[in-house]
Automatic annotation (TrEMBL):
<dbReference type="GO" id="GO:0000160">
    <property type="term" value="P:phosphorelay signal transduction system"/>
</dbReference>
<dbReference type="GO" id="GO:0003677">
    <property type="term" value="F:DNA binding"/>
</dbReference>
<keyword id="KW-0238">DNA-binding</keyword>
<dbReference type="Pfam" id="PF00196">
    <property type="entry name" value="GerE"/>
</dbReference>
<feature type="domain" description="Response regulatory">
    <location>
        <begin position="4"/>
        <end position="108"/>
    </location>
</feature>
<dbReference type="InterPro" id="IPR016032">
    <property type="entry name" value="Sig_transdc_resp-reg_C-effctor"/>
</dbReference>
<dbReference type="GO" id="GO:0006355">
    <property type="term" value="P:regulation of DNA-templated transcription"/>
</dbReference>
<dbReference type="InterPro" id="IPR058245">
    <property type="entry name" value="NreC/VraR/RcsB-like_REC"/>
</dbReference>
<dbReference type="InterPro" id="IPR000792">
    <property type="entry name" value="Tscrpt_reg_LuxR_C"/>
</dbReference>
<protein>
    <recommendedName>
        <fullName>DNA-binding response regulator</fullName>
    </recommendedName>
</protein>
<dbReference type="InterPro" id="IPR011006">
    <property type="entry name" value="CheY-like_superfamily"/>
</dbReference>
<dbReference type="InterPro" id="IPR039420">
    <property type="entry name" value="WalR-like"/>
</dbReference>
<dbReference type="InterPro" id="IPR001789">
    <property type="entry name" value="Sig_transdc_resp-reg_receiver"/>
</dbReference>
<keyword id="KW-0597">Phosphoprotein</keyword>
<feature type="domain" description="HTH luxR-type">
    <location>
        <begin position="132"/>
        <end position="197"/>
    </location>
</feature>
């Protein structure tokens, strides 16, 4: 029986390229363009694998379906995000068709598959559970708390009330957080936090 997949990507040319790469050995049950559509079609069709672009956001989890993520860049944040969200495999968009097919078959069989270009990082992360639990190790516990509230859209006074500290202390924490993360403003820090910590975007 052929391995079945649902392909999720918001770009028509990317879906076409994946469809061509998978033709012959793997049956594409559906192509979708958003995260919610991916979740709905995966639940309805129950494919062996959901092949989804990381740009579509949070990964839907459906029993019996393995998730294979693909993206343009294999950086630390995106890899950890995929791992924390339950993905069994991670593939770069530059992968040749033969590698895509191999990755789909691997995760369909329940085996993890990570692109060779990021294998060393994945091995290190799996060997050090703290790196998965704490994807921003440069921050202290209090700075993590401030960053999560900042990412939730709270202004400094509200963060201060939530944590029982002064607004001045919050400002100091935010300044240090921006420096440690190498970003220039709160919005960039919030975006990085949502990606690294798998937080939900502010409505």
């Amino acid at each position: 029986m052929a391995t079945t997949v649902v392909v999720a990507d918001d770009r028509q040319h990317a879906r076409a390229a994946l469809r061509e790469a998978l033709s012959g050995e793997i049956r594409v049950l559906a192509e979708v363009t958003s995260g919610p559509d991916a979740a709905r079609e995966t639940a309805r069709l129950r494919p062996d694998v959901l092949l989804i672009n990381a740009r579509l956001g949070s990964l839907p989890g459906v029993a019996g379906t393995s998730v294979l993520v693909f993206t343009e860049v294999g950086n630390d944040v995106s890899v950890l995000r995929a791992m924390r969200s339950g993905a069994l495999g991670y593939l770069l968009e530059t992968a040749p068709p033969s590698q895509i097919v191999r990755a789909v078959h691997s995760v369909a069989a329940g085996a993890a598959y990570f692109d060779a270009k990021i294998a060393d990082y994945v091995t290190a992360a799996l060997g050090d559970p703290d790196s998965v639990r704490n994807p921003l190790p440069q921050l202290t516990g209090r700075q993590h708390e401030v960053l999560e509230l900042l990412a939730a859209g709270l202004p400094n006074p509200a963060i201060a009330r939530q944590l029982g500290i002064s607004s001045k202390t919050v400002r100091n924490h935010v300044s240090v957080i921006l420096t440690k993360l190498g970003v220039k403003d709160r919005s960039l820090a919030a975006d990085l936090a949502r990606k690294a910590l798998c937080l939900t975007d502010v409505p």
